[in-house]
Amino acid sequence: MDLKGVIRNVPDFPKPGIQFKDITTLLLNPQAFQYTINCFVDRYTSLNINAIVAVESRGFIFGSVIAYNLKCPLVLARKKGKLPAEKITESFALEYGWDTIEMHVDALKEGQRVVIVDDLLATGGTVSAVVKLVKQLKAIPIEAGFVIELPALKGREILQPLPVFSLVQFDDI
Ligand code: AMP
Asked: Which residue, 88, 89, 131, 170, is the most exposed by fewest CB within 10 angstroms?
């Protein structure tokens, strides 16, 4: 399956110089979507995973279907102000300014083996913050899984020692 071929590159979005990797074109292709999900499900079936943590918002699309297929709980890591109940919060640096990600305090239990899922790994700042939340709840991050990785931005190094799995890599950023 040529996954790269179904991901649309949109130059200069949302600002000049960014090569935006658009997964909406992947989602329009049912074979590509199924292939993507199956890659993750096949990988994690034997790893005794107890929860999928999906990162808002495109991580929800993939993470929810992976959790459904693995028959394991789905945890939402959401942007600031969206979760209604008691939560923990982690802020992380963006290119300009800060962003905040949150998780409900009762979303994970001590010792649960967790995979964190997002659509794309760039600098790794987002998922680093999610890893901190997972550890705060005493769960165990096993791996971070992405559809797309931009290796030039070295997110994989930021996330060390957490293993990183990605289906396709793009060299332009
Ligand atoms: P980072 O925290 O730098 O790893 O950025 C990851 C988050 O930003 C992911 O949730 C992506 O959806 C989004 N993102 C960053 N760069 C891009 C890009 N070039 N194309 C599409 N999404 C991106």
From this structure: 89
Residue 139, both tokens: 């769960």
pLDDT tens string 119-142: 999 999 999 999 999 999 999 999
Question: Residue of the nearest CA to atom 15 in ligand 1?
Answer: 122
- Tell me the per-residue pLDDT of 48-79, one tens digit each, with 9 for 90 and over: 999 999 999 999 999 999 999 999 999 999 99
Q: Does residue 95 have an active-site annotation? A: yes
Q: Is 149 a catalytic residue?
A: no
Residues 6+ apart with CB under 8 A from 171: 151, 152
How far away, in angstroms, is 120 Cα from ligand 1 center? Answer: 5
Tell me, in angstroms, the distance from the centre of ligand 1 to residue 169's CA.
13
Cβ contact 140:113 at 8 Å? yes
